[in-house]
Amino acid sequence: MKIVFIGAGNLATNLSKALYRAGHEILQVYSRTAESAQMMADLFECSATVSLDDVRTDADMYIFSVKDSVLEQLACTLAARIKDRLFVHTAGSMQMDILPVERRGVLYPMQSFSKTKEVNFREIPVFIEANKNDDLAVLRQLSESISDRVYEMSSDDRKYLHLSAVFCCNFANHCYDLGARVLESHGIPFDVMLPLIDETARKVHTLHPHDAQTGPAVRWDENVMAKQIELLEDERMKQIYRMMSEGIHGMRN
Amino acid sequence: MKIVFIGAGNLATNLSKALYRAGHEILQVYSRTAESAQMMADLFECSATVSLDDVRTDADMYIFSVKDSVLEQLACTLAARIKDRLFVHTAGSMQMDILPVERRGVLYPMQSFSKTKEVNFREIPVFIEANKNDDLAVLRQLSESISDRVYEMSSDDRKYLHLSAVFCCNFANHCYDLGARVLESHGIPFDVMLPLIDETARKVHTLHPHDAQTGPAVRWDENVMAKQIELLEDERMKQIYRMMSEGIHGMRN
Known about the structure:
alpha/beta; homodimer; 15% strand; 8 strands
């Protein structure tokens, strides 16, 4: 497949690398910022552009991996010039139908990407959707060339998937960050916490998180909770502590 | 070492098993409930009791692994009858000095235990403290017989360690539980989330959680956040979503 990437962020960088390794051709990279476009294009020795007018019209597929707020606008501008090509976006939280073309689809790799940390794409669940059956088959083949976990999922269900990911990944990581802040303000290195973090993640492979829950809030040990809230100096951290504890306790009643 | 366990919960069960395997002798198990005491005692073919009066006086060490709120009372009652033995508790959030004996210490294995899921104790960080140098040496030797990560830590620092663990483990797990609830209410199996959960935990081995943070709250994508809050039916989940997002964003300014 000959592919043009619209966007050069973390997801675009990781996805394009995986596709390139699987033998697909990255024709061009568009990004609003010249530096990002060039940096990603350099990986594939292809052309980079910051101008939508210069986006090539001869690719098989256009993968939009941009901020949700600009997706529709970008797709609309390109659709005026590029006809009968498959437009695909990678956004977990956006409907497929935001793409204003007949041949449209979604390829959502559900993972938390960073540019510097390599991930094994084969283990990443990829959720696909397309407006036409032929394009769905194309997306399936493409996705299976990079991942062993390809699922078809509608835009409606995908919204909830993405919402769940915000809790399981973004919010869980924020908990790590708050924990790190507590340790560091008392000169204790964060890495003493890694075995516990790993086990907490490992545990939910075999136990439902509801059954895996431990801590003072499960027992509603008010003595411990009150003392811990007192140790926190930051007002927002106190509030988060209270609300999470009430959440843990509330789900048990 | 000849050890009596006061308490037969998740931590006591896992710790006593590890000590037993390392060649120590579990002399007796006390628990408020006969069933728990017997179940744990059966593992070591030792005696079980629900009466403090029947606790043997000839052990080298008494390990208290009980609810924080009853620890002091239990230790006090036993201290009246058992003289010049090492009393140790396993509670991350309690001061060592709550134990009303001269020979006192703490052995805090920082991990989230469940009775059914086996953990590799060698990887668990164990934090120790003792009132007397001789007893600290005893505790160090005992701890090193079951774990490769033994650290000495004062009661004051341990409070913050435990507080951090509540964020990194208990609250992170609650995030998983909330994510599972979102998926399950739309017929999507929770296990699609496991690769993301694993990667989120793996990431903080090489990146500080602050730098590993991703998601709509980092970009402060109000459009996505408003839509996601709308998808949540539960009022508390909406509040948690808002507060965690503000926390993520607030730590960036």
